[in-house]
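Write out the bound-state structure for zinc ion.
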Amino acid sequence: MRGVPPFYVTTPIYYVNDVPHIGHAYTTVTADALARWHRLNGDDTFFLTGTDEHGLKVLRAAEANDCSPQEWADRTSARFREAWDLLGIAYDDFIRTTEGRHEHAVQALLQRIYDNGHIYKSTYSGLYCVPCEAYYAPTDLVGDEMCPVHDRPVEHLEEENWFFRLSAFAEPLLAWYEAQSGAVTPVGKRNEALGIIRQGLADISISRTSIDWGVPVPWDPSQVFYVWYDALINYATAIGYGTDRQRFDAWWPHVHHLIGKDILRFHCVYWPAMLLAAGEEPPANIHVHGYLLVGGAKMSKTALNQIFPADLVETFGVDGFRYQFLRDQSFGPDGDFSFEGMVTRYNTDLANNLGNLLSRVATVVNKACGGVGPAPHPESPLADVAARVLAEASRHWESVAPSQALEATWSLVREANAYLEANEPWKMPPGAELDAVLGDALEVLRIVAILATPAIPTTCAEIWRRIGLTGTPGDEPLPASAAWGRYPGGLTVVKGDPLFPRLSVES
Ligand SMILES: [Zn+2]
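---
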């Protein structure tokens, strides 16, 4: 432990009607890499993902597929687990909102808000978008009463239901934003949330009478909670809210919510307000990212431009997939995906830089040193580079900037390749001078195998093995594990097949 708070990271829970595509994978791989980084540091780490399974759309999909909503949710939730298994996602918990533990926590938290006097009954009439499952204020609609997200007409709906007194929380929210100025990142998204709050907050309807596929309101079982207020609470359920106060307090509020910008209002306004109303602290960190665009357009079922992880894993491998989305998309702004860009990134960073470094070193060690890797030189020019890269990569991982963390890590790979080109060990006679150059390069490989583990864990374990080390790159905590000079020398170095075979765009 570094004397830092425990690290609790979450993805949004994904809607079971969706098929997991590279947008879901982008957020989930990012959360997984952050969790792996914190585990490498020996931090107490908890990584939560899961599926959102209630609401009208699930009910309708089940009817259309001639099964019960629970059967539908079971079937569709499994697709997410399969996708995350494929991508080597090491979550600690996978929560489903139809689980008993979740129903219990939802009821406990909303009962608390009710007991605190912030929930009341009233008639609601408004403009409702069915796919969003959300009411819209007329000012939020575009054109002729069209949903701003779906660009389709909203419906007029009226019902008697339970309201959360959100209007009472504008001031407490502004005070919280003032006190916790770094809670929502990037700053542009923080300002967007502040803008929503300053515009004035209307009370919100949090229950429905029209359907029964949801969590019953404990004081009025004729209604169920509206899917969003049920879903948000998953973050509290998974760490013991309502059942294990000690466990909840150990993790909360040190959470890092990763969310897409389309759900900013729910996470940056409604969720902190609900927690304040329940007498809990709002989440300490909400990291908002943009859309992952394909050819400049948002992915959608209707646009038929969704890309699924398995399509890319077939060509690039699991680590090639993970590396692409962590390295090429800067966390925060919208990112644009292209197959050609992915081939270029893969060839440059993985095949040419990292793959080539290992292959060159292993070749010379096998030719000139009888396959036994020498130890590094304590005063190698690469030692300073490695120390700087460790500091930079740490800083970037801590601030949820995987792309910059990997850029820093790959600067060490490039420096090592340049060092080999300057010294040309393949032309040097056996002896102390050659040993020093090869030992330095092996030490860089060892350090990179640690620092790149969050992104490409399988490859890093393989590099570790090929340079003769036992155990795994994460056996000893950072930063000590990445200090220069730890590669002992005298180990058998295995040549092996290329780590990342080069690809052409045609393939
Ligand atoms: Zn909509």
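---
The longest strand covers residues 119-129.
Residues 338-492 form a domain with the Isoleucyl-tRNA Synthetase; Domain 1 fold (CATH 1.10.730.10).
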